[in-house]
Amino acid sequence: MNSLFLFKDWVPIIARDVQRQRRQAPQAPFSNAYLSGMPSKRRKIMTNGSPVLLGQSQSALSDILFQAISNANVQPLHNIEEVKKDASQDVLLQSSFNEHMKNAIQERLHRDLDYCSERFPNAEKYFNIDHI
């Protein structure tokens, strides 16, 4: 009899939770930081073949460039491997890419309601979020 009473108390709570979950926005894709902590096979499945930005920025930029060329269905004037190699060795391009990524992350952290600078002091120091 007691368990039935507890169950009846939970019905409105469960109904409310169901309604809240229906109104929630779909989950954003997993972050590259989260994905980089997974085993490579699982990470490959989770990313659906899209490039992972963590690691060396030279390879990330080359991978993104390759994917963009492939998705555009165009043929570069030079061999794709040569284009990737040139992109990975271009210091100005790499610097611009790194700066763009840093700015994008700063903006994301600034807007993200779940980000807590006290929990991530090194990220706060590196990205200097307060000075945007």
UniProtKB/TrEMBL annotation:
GO cellular component: BAT3 complex
Protein name in UniProt: Large proline-rich protein BAG6
GO molecular function annotation: misfolded protein binding; polyubiquitin modification-dependent protein binding
Biological process according to GO: ERAD pathway
